[in-house]
Write a sequence for this structure.
């Protein structure tokens, strides 16, 4: 897929940003919604659960895809997409046949295998590396603790196990560096409801530094990354994106940045912490909770969030990643059915969410971000079990605080309006559905661009209703 306008290479420059290292700077003014640049994926891998609904080559979402005649597991728009993807797919095709159900490398391993193959096939600089080459990626090798090093060694073992036929491997030390680079510089490609589609490497996009007050947003057209202004950007101003979910208070955000990217953020919001009080709003009671009670509840909430984050590796949490698919099926007039062997049944998972909400609700207001986090998990379970009314109730509680806590033109806010709009439509509340979908479109036209296929699809949903 192609962007509606080619980026101007003389309008942006790589420079050394004080205290941050390499960065990207604007050389002219950019208005809100304007495309700064686009970057095709150096390489990308479609997540296994999306095979059959998205093209393995270009990530286009469509029906009637053609499957690979050999492995029967990769799907393509047409012969052209299949031929273009073959140098990468051949790394996995025969292995999937040989391993059968035992073929299960992680997405990080799959992406790293493709980088190794790409570097051999295309050793010269690619179209994705106009400003930053893959080999220049930071690895932060000196900052890796023993746990992270052990995880990388597990990934290296999996790489050798699943990809021995078609890859030439560098030595172990070089593989450690490469996996560390991928962990720090890889991107997650998501759809309009922020459901995970796959992982990719976008070198020029990786040049941008982080801020919790970003002035650009990264969105995707298939395997093409597009960077648009969400604030007016003046000549000489650094271009900042966000590496993390910005819902949470300063301490939580910086914990995440240190763990994943090995730095603390010094943006205005992190220095002033001006939004933290609203994000951590305490329930107004005649007998207010003590400072110790509040601290204990924040600790409990953070532990719950971490448990959910870790649990994403287990099958039962797949209901959360499948939730947006349920809403998308609603939008297309399909009945969503999901079958999964749960370690914990969805009903019990929902009960965990509700019990946590009851406990935290004794201290926190509903607009508190920890309450919102647990409501979002509960909404996902409701969507998965097709409890549309339950999902709607949670979504209605979430959307207003989301709009307050997130920056302008947030994809998180847009995706929540989109979910709500589709739920309203499914429950035959067209008036509310139209309003919600129009709010989603208003944000997405800035973040994604007015000509983006997702925007066109939502507008068609409005016409069809």
């Amino acid at each position: 897929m192609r962007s509606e306008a080619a980026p101007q290479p003389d309008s942006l420059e790589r420079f050394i940003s004080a205290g941050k290292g390499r960065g990207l700077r604007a050389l002219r003014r950019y208005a809100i919604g304007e495309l700064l640049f686009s970057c095709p994926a150096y390489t990308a891998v479609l997540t296994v659960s999306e095979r059959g609904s998205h093209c393995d080559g270009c990530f286009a979402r469509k029906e009637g895809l053609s499957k690979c005649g050999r492995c029967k597991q990769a799907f393509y728009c047409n012969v052209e997409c299949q031929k273009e993807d073959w140098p990468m797919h051949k790394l996995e095709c025969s292995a999937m046949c040989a391993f059968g159900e035992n073929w299960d490398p992680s997405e990080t391993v799959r992406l790293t295998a493709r980088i190794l193959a790409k570097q051999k096939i295309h050793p010269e600089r690619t179209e994705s590396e106009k400003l930053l080459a893959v080999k220049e990626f930071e690895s932060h090798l000196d900052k890796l603790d023993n746990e992270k090093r052990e995880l990388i060694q597990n990934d290296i073992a999996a790489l050798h196990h699943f990809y021995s036929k078609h890859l030439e491997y560098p030595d172990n030390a070089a593989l450690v560096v490469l996996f560390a680079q991928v962990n720090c510089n890889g991107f997650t490609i998501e759809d309009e409801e922020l459901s995970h589609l796959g992982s990719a490497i976008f070198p020029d996009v990786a040049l941008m530094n982080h801020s919790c007050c970003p002035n650009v947003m990264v969105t995707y057209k298939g395997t093409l990354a597009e960077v648009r202004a969400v604030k007016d950007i003046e000549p000489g101003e650094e271009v900042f994106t966000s590496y993390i979910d910005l819902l949470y208070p300063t301490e939580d955000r910086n914990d995440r940045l240190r763990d994943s990217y090995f730095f603390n953020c010094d943006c205005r919001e992190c220095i002033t912490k001006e939004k933290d009080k609203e994000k951590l709003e305490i329930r107004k009671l005649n007998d207010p909770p003590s400072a110790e009670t509040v601290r204990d509840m924040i600790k409990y909430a953070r532990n719950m969030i971490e448990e959910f984050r870790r649990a994403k590796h287990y099958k039962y949490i797949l209901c959360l990643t499948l939730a947006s698919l349920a809403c998308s099926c609603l939008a297309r007039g399909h009945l969503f059915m999901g079958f999964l062997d749960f370690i914990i049944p969805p009903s019990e998972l929902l009960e965990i969410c509700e019990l946590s909400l009851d406990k935290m609700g004794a201290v926190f207001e509903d607009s508190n971000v920890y309450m919102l986090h647990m409501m979002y998990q509960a909404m996902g379970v409701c969507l998965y079990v097709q409890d549309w009314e339950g999902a709607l109730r949670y979504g209605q509680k979430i959307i207003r605080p989301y709009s307050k806590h997130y920056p302008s033109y947030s994809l998180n806010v847009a995706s929540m309006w989109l979910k709500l709009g589709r739920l309203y439509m499914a429950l035959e509340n067209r008036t509310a559905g139209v309003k919600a979908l129009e709010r989603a479109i208003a944000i997405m036209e800035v973040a994604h661009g007015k000509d983006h296929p997702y925007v066109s699809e939502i507008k068609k949903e409005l016409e069809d209703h």
About this structure: Residues 288 and 363 are 8 Å apart (CA to CA).
